[in-house]
Amino acid sequence: MLGALLREKKILVCVGPGGAGKTTISAAIGARAARAGRRTLVATIDPAPRLADALGIAGLGGEPRAVPAAACRALGVDAAEGAERLYAVRLDTERTFARLVDGQVTDPEMRRRIYDNTIYRQITTTLTGSQEYAATLALHDFVAEGGFDLVILDTPPTANALDFLDAPARIRAAVSSPAIKWFARPDDRRRFSFQRLRAGGALVMRRLAKLLGSAFLDDLGAFLVDFQGVLGGFLARADAIDRLLRGADVAFLLVLAPAVAAVDEALYFHARLREAGIPLGGFIANRVQPAPGLDDAAAIGAALRDDPAFAGLSGETISDAAGRLGPVARAFGTLRASERRELGRLGERAPGITITEIPLLDHDVDNLAELRLVGDALDGGPPTAP
Fold this sequence. Notes:
Layout: H1 2-8, E1 11-15, H2 22-35, E2 40-44, H3 50-55, E3 65-66, H4 69-74, E4 86-90, H5 93-104, H6 108-116, H7 118-125, H8 130-145, E5 150-154, H9 162-175, H10 178-183, H11 203-212, H12 214-226, H13 228-245, E6 250-256, H14 260-276, E7 280-288, H15 297-306, H16 315-349, E8 355-359, H17 368-378
Parallel strand pairs: 1-5, 1-6, 2-4, 2-5, 6-7, 7-8
Antiparallel strand pairs: 3-4
Helix pairs in contact: 2-17, 5-8, 5-13, 8-9, 8-13, 9-13, 11-12, 14-16, 15-16
């Protein structure tokens, strides 16, 4: 199923809560698509440099960069000079918003006032959904430019996957709210009209000015006046992003842990997507426990005695080790059984949606060889050493 998505889609959006492994999965999917011959861009807004580390790119920045040929070869990608197939970019929230402002405001002085405005900086850096909205803005631009066969978006780390889905609507609601429209109709179009602060509903604003200082109202007024020409651009782009995400060329992949809370959230996200008419391409269960081995102390002891690597150990030491390993193995077996139950529940509640399992490796993926192991697992087969 995932192979079909890699061949047919133009956009894959990896969503999921922070810590689920989206960055690693995005990089592995990108390498897999490039291996199949598609010119692929992996885009992340994650402030941590994990994607650059995973792909062997130092100093990943705001412009797409080709993954070095040596790294591509390690990933099984044929990337001869002049025929690069795998690219990566680290999205910059501030820069992404600035591109939208630059496209709407031609006056350099007005652009400077907007960028220097405290209210603008708060909206584009700390407002809930700003990172997610910036990611959708960048995604829209990369697709519109048409330089890649496939764009894979590693969405920002959030408390839950719905933050990304709701971001465009949240920004649209914020910039088109009646409050902003009310304050943004000054009598003098060149400056904010404090006459409105003397209106019946302005008592809260006057008290707010006493609390925060008149500079706050100055910044608010300047922002609302200067930003009028940009509000329409924000709304238009939010609508364009909404249409893009609902298109037939897009598929969402939900990365999750095989645990109760994560499966509950995955099912809710699936229902929300279905209500919105947006297709879910599949679930990717990351870090799935492998099947346990021996859990009986006697059997473990016999296996240790038969292994030449432990030939120098005394029988007492081996027996002690086997007695300690037995309970640990049984605990992992219990965890494995719990994960199988949750993945079974996910399959029953979301029939027809493929669940791809990525096995738990010995440690976090931090090199190309292990990234390729994850890519092999995405193909549906067991990981194999490159």
